[in-house]
Amino acid sequence: MNREIKKIPLALATGAIALVLLYCLAFASTAPPQAGSVLPDLNLPVPERAAERNYLGLEGGAYFKIPEIKAEVVIIEIFSMYCPYCQREAPEINRLYSIIEKSPDLKGKIKLVGIGAGNSPFEVGIFKEKYTVPFPLFSDEDFALHKCFGEVRTPYFIGVKMNADGTHRIFYSKLGEFKGAEPFLGLMLRLSGLQ
């Protein structure tokens, strides 16, 4: 009987430690990516369309990581097809893509991708078609990627600088309305060091 009583505090202490660890792990992943940090280690499916694979500079395989994109800067937009701001800003973000692709100094150096938080492949396809989005969009139907990014609201933009040695760093991470293609591009060029 005495042994049984001694086991109770040990079991309670072990349980309390486990709960604290779970709490810390749960809340550690809820912070959005910070400037100066690196992206969460996540996999995206290689696009089925050859044009999108070529745009991203991807060879083959089933999955890739964002730092594998052939670019000096990658701009990630976390969006939702149900977000009215995302819908309203889609034409201007498309214009950003167009400005980059038409510039001999920027084409190939800056790439855009979108991640549809909570959106199925069907919903992402509807958004892509309705707003004629020219860059790759990825479904995040189960919010797995969204959780890795700290469950941010939409639209959320992350700028990532790719380094020559294969490393990368986040230089921009903000929620907010897109204030226009030219001002945003100027900000990305300045903060990334491309300008």
Explain the overall architecture.
The protein is an alpha/beta fold. It has 2 domains: 1-30; 32-192, Glutaredoxin (3-Layer(aba) Sandwich). It is built from 6 helices and 7 strands, in the order H-E-H-E-E-H-E-H-E-H-E-E-H. The strands form 2 sheets. It has a 5-stranded mixed beta sheet. Strand 4 (110-117), helix 4 and strand 5 (137-140) form a beta-alpha-beta unit. Helix 3 (84-102) crosses helix 6 (181-192). The longest helix is centred in the first third of the chain and has 27 residues, at 2-28. The protein is globular. The termini are far apart. Residues 8-28 have low confidence and may be disordered.
- Tell me the number of strands: 7
Distance separating the two termini? 75 Å
Average pLDDT works out at 87
User: Quick one: overall form?
Assistant: globular
How big is the Rg? 20 Å
- Per the CATH scheme, the topology name of the largest domain is Glutaredoxin
Helical stretch count?
6
| CATH architecture tag of the largest domain | 3-Layer(aba) Sandwich
For the record, what is the CATH homologous superfamily label of the largest domain?
A: Glutaredoxin
Q: What is the highest CATH level, the class of the largest domain?
A: Alpha Beta
Which structural class do the helices and strands define? alpha/beta
Helix content: 40-55%
* Residue share in β-strands: 15-25%
What's the arrangement of strands in the largest beta sheet?
A: 5-4-3-6-7
Stretches where pLDDT is under 50 for at least 5 consecutive residues are 8-28
Number of domains: 2
- Largest sheet, strands/sense/barrel: 5 strands, mixed
Series of H and E elements: HEHEEHEHEHEEH
